[in-house]
Design goal:
The protein is an alpha+beta fold. The protein has 2 domains: 6-129, no CATH class; 133-223, no CATH class. Helices cover 23% and strands 29% of the residues. It has 4 helices and 13 strands. The strands form 5 sheets. It has a 4-stranded mixed β-sheet with strand order 1-8-6-7, with no helix packed on it. A 3-stranded mixed β-sheet has the order 2-3-9, covered by helices on one side. A two-stranded antiparallel sheet has the order 4-5. Helix 3 (136-154) packs across helix 4 (175-184). The chain is elongated, with a radius of gyration of 21 Å.
Length: 224
């Protein structure tokens, strides 16, 4: 049965759905999803340690955002969603910004999935922030260890945080920054910790390109 009635959810109710979806997709990972209501809007802040990458979590949590922002014309646009019985969400419709000379396309009304209800989520945006360790000092130590290991493979001397030239004279990026980006792009299963780096094997492909350089490294992991 098709219904056009829209159910309006609070930001806190939306945060509860985000937490449930993340726990379902990434079992064993501890997430926090805190709601924040302010003048003119509301948002949800998601945080976790290691586990899935930010890109992976964004792909799930972003389904519960009720808005997008078009920076080319400084305009926000909103969406309605279908909320399925299992808690998953898909966009039902949205006006976009192309009609106002922006770049976000209009979403025409989508068919109602079986058992789904039409909702408007209470959070405009969901921000996802991953930490590599429980505290900043340990995170810096981890980044430096990865940087040292990368330098050892490349047979260059690690001289501290300002070491450059990992990929030759044309690479002005600090090795610690390369290390952070490699860690940030690496998925860790629950209980796994860093165990070193190795070169890619033939046939392995990575999407990440750091500062214009295809990074030929893979993170090694072990159980804690």
């Amino acid at each position: 049965m098709v219904t056009t009635e829209t159910k309006y959810l609070s930001c806190a109710e939306t945060a509860k759905l985000v937490r449930a979806a993340l726990h379902k997709n990434f079992p064993g990972v501890k997430f926090t999803a805190r709601s924040d209501v302010y003048s003119g809007g509301a948002s949800i802040d998601v945080r976790w340690v290691l586990g899935p990458t930010t890109k992976e979590v964004d792909a799930i949590a972003g389904r519960y955002e009720s808005a997008s922002f078009d920076g080319s014309i400084d305009m926000e646009t909103s969406y309605s969603h279908w909320l399925k019985p299992d808690g998953d969400a898909t966009i039902e419709s949205g006006p976009g910004t192309e009609g106002s000379m922006g770049y976000i396309p209009k979403v025409e009304p989508q068919p109602q999935p079986e058992g789904a209800v039409k909702v408007h989520f209470g959070a405009h945006y969901v921000s996802c922030q991953r930490s590599l360790t429980e505290n900043y000092r340990d995170e810096m130590d981890l980044r430096r260890q990865v940087a040292r290991d990368m330098c050892e493979l490349q047979r260059i001397e690690y001289k501290g945080d300002n070491t450059v030239g990992l990929f030759g004279a044309g690479d002005s990026e600090q090795v610690d920054q390369h290390a952070w980006r490699l860690l940030d792009a690496t998925h860790f299963d629950p209980g796994e910790v860093y165990a070193g780096v190795r070169y890619e094997k033939e046939g392995e492909k990575r999407e990440e390109i750091l500062n214009g350089f295809q990074v030929p490294f893979v993170i090694l992991k072990k159980k804690a």
